Structure formats: C-alpha cells, structure tokens
Amino acid sequence: MPQYAWNDKYSVGIQTIDSQHANLFCILNELSDAMKCGQGKAVVGPLLKELLQYTRVHFAEEEKMMARVGYPDLANHRLAHTALTQKVADFVVRFESGEMALSIELLDFLNGWLGNHILGTDKKYSPHMKEKGLQ
Ligand SMILES: [Fe+2]
Questions:
Q1: CA of 7 to the centre of ligand 1 (A)
Q2: What are the pLDDT digits (tens) for 12-40?
Q3: Is the separation of the CB atoms in 1 and 91 below 8 Å?
Q4: Which of 10, 83, 90, 125 is the most buried (most CB within 10 A)?
Q5: pLDDT digits (tens, 9 = 90+) for 93-118
Q6: Could you tell me the distance, in angstroms and rounded to a whole number, from the CA of residue 51 to the centre of ligand 1?
C-alpha cells in the first residue's frame, strides 16, 4: 500500500480536482520510493521539479474554477497557494544546491502540506462549487 495516498476523506466532491489531488499524492509516493531505493539526485531532482510544476498547474486550475463560480474567498485562497508554492520552490532550490537532502521529515512535511491544505482550505469551496453545478 502506498505510504502517501489520496482517500475519500480528501474528496472535495469535484472530480477534476480530486484526481489532481490524487496525482499530487502519487508524486509524493514516487519521491518516497526513490528515497527508499536510495536513488540519487538524478532521479529525485526531476521528481521534486515535477511536484512543483504539477502544484503550479493544479493551483492555477483550481483558481480558474473558483473564479468561474465567483467564489468569495478566492483572494485568500490564492494567497495560501502562493505561500505553499513558494515552500516547495524553496525546497527545490535547497535540494539542487546540495544544502538539503530528501528525507522522511521532508516527505512528511509535504504530505501534511498537501493534506492540511485540502482539508482546511480546499474543502471550504466545495459547497459553493457544487451549488454552481460543478461536479
Ligand atoms: Fe487549494
């Protein structure tokens, strides 16, 4: 069983978003496997960049959807996305410079970063989006 996995408790009830969130957990798992198998920078570096890139794509998509339905808390949600993206971007820079290695602590942090954002922030837009007919 994968260590980091999307499950129903993370569902925001919107299919596109749920599958993008599941994808983010998949990348975390790939990172975890790479670390457990002792893979070096050549494997871990691109995976970290993929996580950053996919995070950007996903957040942009989410913001577009929130804008489309006139979600009232979009500005705050966008700020949260910017802060989260910055954290991952910082990790990528520190990893690339050799200042920091991939560790269980980092993976657990990223897992919490993703899970807490979904449960604490994303879930809030769910009723509004559903009310506007998104599914
Ligand atoms: Fe979000």
A1: 17
A2: 999 999 999 999 999 999 999 999 998 88
A3: no
A4: 125
A5: 999 999 988 888 889 989 999 999 99
A6: 15
